[in-house]
Amino acid sequence: MRAITIDRYGGPEVAQLRSDVPVPAPAPGEVLVQVVCAGVNFMDVHTRQGKYRDSRTYPPRAPCTLGMEGAGVVLALGEGVTHLAVGDRVAWCIAWGSYAQYACVPAWQAARIPEAIGFDLAAAAMFQGCTAHYLVHDVARLAPGHSCLVHAGSGSIGQLLIQTAKRLGATVFATASTPHKRAVAAQRGADRTLAYEGFADAVRAATGGRGVDVVFDSLGKATLRESLRAARTRGLIVNYGNVSGSVSDLDPIELGEAGSLLLTRPRLADHMTDAATIQRRADAVFWAIAAGHLSVDLAEPCTLDDVQRVHARIEARAQVGKSVVWIDARDALARA
Ligand SMILES: NC(=O)c1ccc[n+]([C@@H]2O[C@H](COP(=O)([O-])OP(=O)(O)OC[C@H]3O[C@@H](n4cnc5c(N)ncnc54)[C@H](OP(=O)(O)O)[C@@H]3O)[C@@H](O)[C@H]2O)c1
């Protein structure tokens, strides 16, 4: 089968398209899926770069097939799988091998997709939609009257965080690096958009000196210290990503000095630990999309031949919107 694999860590060039990869056979508890669309994520970039080589949460190591999110049709059931059937339309994330024509997915990680949702939207929304869902509902527990700051408000998760927080009645500040990206964040509903330069002072000024209840920080090194200053006394800092590098020298006393702040570094994997939770979160995301409450910013359709280019664009900070790979190029052409 055709698949994008890495045999070593490195830049986009190590992601190689091969046409001789064996079709995997489902182990007990897995389903074999014909992949229709695969989501392209920052996590794939991190995996390719080798950032997870020592991670206990994320097991894939080179050599491997890239891609940890996708949508497709169940072709065969491994031993013991009873809650899915051949022909089911499913989506998954944090299960590797999706940049390929066929993938074996642990059945408990595969969520059924409603008819109203196409494979491209399902592959685009599963990972980031479920992430925004748990961050807003379970970690930050936003409610009417709350305020939050969303960094990288035009990023895939940023856009979903803004929409979800607004729908729950929160006031939303959002940062982004360019006027175009700030316009995207405003379009998604941010009440106020900001450049990164001086964002903490701007947030404090706009909140009468108080600061926001919650900061969603996916940048890490470039913003985290200033994020502490943007939060209110006893506010919550949610450091859910480290696209600019991680902070390795934070003394807990800084959290005290900044106003008894709470700092957390949550992971989706710990909020998707069983089949029922995964289907519940996926349903919430898919139905919000179907009802028009949540928009997913789909980038132009691409194919397995385009993966290196999309990875390079993400790393160059030039990507706005989510890329999904149509595994069969004919499907991509039909969508273009
Ligand atoms: N903890 C979790 O549960 C969880 C789950 C899913 C993903 N994540 C992580 O969340 C982060 C964001 O994911 P995403 O899918 O929203 O990514 P994305 O769509 O690629 O957006 C990332 C944004 O980060 C900003 N950025 C700032 N510095 C950057 C840099 N040096 N390189 C590239 N982008 C930079 C860019 O916006 P500006 O140019 O406006 O700054 C960009 O739009 C990633 O680190 C991902 O691994 C965490």
Automatic annotation (TrEMBL):
This is Quinone oxidoreductase. Keywords: NADP, Oxidoreductase. One of its GO terms (molecular function) is NADPH binding. GO terms for cellular component: cytosol. The keyword Protease does not apply. It comes from Comamonas antarctica. InterPro entries: ADH-like_C (IPR013149), ADH-like_N (IPR013154), ER (IPR020843), GroES-like_sf (IPR011032), NAD(P)-bd_dom_sf (IPR036291), QOR-like (IPR047618). Residues 10-325 form the Enoyl reductase (ER) domain. It comes from the Bacteria.
